[in-house]
Amino acid sequence: YGWAFTGFLITSIVGMVVSGLRTDRRGPRLPLLLGLSLFVAGLVLAAAAGAMWVLIAARVVQGLAVGLLITAIYVVMGEVYPDQVRPRMFAALSTSWIVPGLVGPILAGWVTQQLSWRWVFGGLAPIAAASGLMLVPAVRRLRSGAHTQELGPGLSRVGFAVLTALGIAAVAEVGQRQSPATVAIAVLGLAAMLYGLHRLLPAGTARFAPGVPAAIAYRGVLAATWVGMEVLVPLTLTVQRHYSPTMAGLPLLLTALTWAGASQIQGRSPHVGKSSFVRVGLALFGVGGLGMALVALRTVPGWFAYLVWPVAGAGAGFALTAVSVAVLEYTTDVDRGSDSSSLQLADSSMSAVSAAFSGALVALSANGTMSYAHGLGTAFAVMALIALLAIIRAGRLRPGPGRPVSAEAAARSHVSS
Known about the structure:
16 helices
């Protein structure tokens, strides 16, 4: 069962890197069209699956498709929309993730009960296909040829992407089962993942170097701290407060609303610096995480989660949107594809590591090694502390020295001088 998710994750990472390479060389046309086609094919294959391995194969295809698409979408936003419009576009992009996330699980459950789980996949195929057809006229106007790169470095990046993906899968496994074997595999996987990321991410990412590296580093920090806490919110209310599944999931609904609202505020505040939004976002992460730690420890009532976790959602809306916009502003036309894929790589890899960390603490609590209060409280407190410490380097979220922000910004600078 776990490989239905792990297989998706591995191929999506490879798809991100392949899409970044292709878009830098020839533009985003092919990754968009191929990604949409593979996504529809994966839905149809999943709907027709007669065995688990077929469903896993379908998820592998879907993962590759999503990896191709998400990087290409970022490149399109960088190429088509001017600097002053991008914050609003990323706010719209955040809403397009959040709103389906509110109704999707409920609708999927209803379809499964009333019809069949196959319709959850198959019913989406015509919608995805129709969306692809609607995009074709616009895709034809996108850049179709540009920079030429040697084949060797590209193949090398794909190899490091595979290494990174396998390392992430090994790390994720320890979050499901703890044994000497899985711990040893996770340690090797972590080393493989870090080495792969070292070769794939821009130089200076680990030290938050100004420019694109800092933006990508902050995307990793934000994704890690968010995922490491969010996966535990319903569980905390269910285990520690004995809330029903519906009531335990309510904070996620409220958080989606504050996330969307904060994204809209960020998108309509061009006069506020991106580092300021990141500082505020990380601070709100800290408030949300420490508040949920108190809920887990039963220091405050359970309903406190309805107040404090949406605060973290607002932080995500401010900070995640800001760093996404920053990457497209700080990159160049030549590197837009690879930098966009690096942004997604940082997100996926750090999310997997933090989810494995939180999952391991839950497993230790479940088998009696520690109490749920201490396991859940520790996870929330650690993630909150990481977020608060990351505020220190928020000032590095600025254009790097000697690197033009974008072709458009460079042109404006030339006219001004």
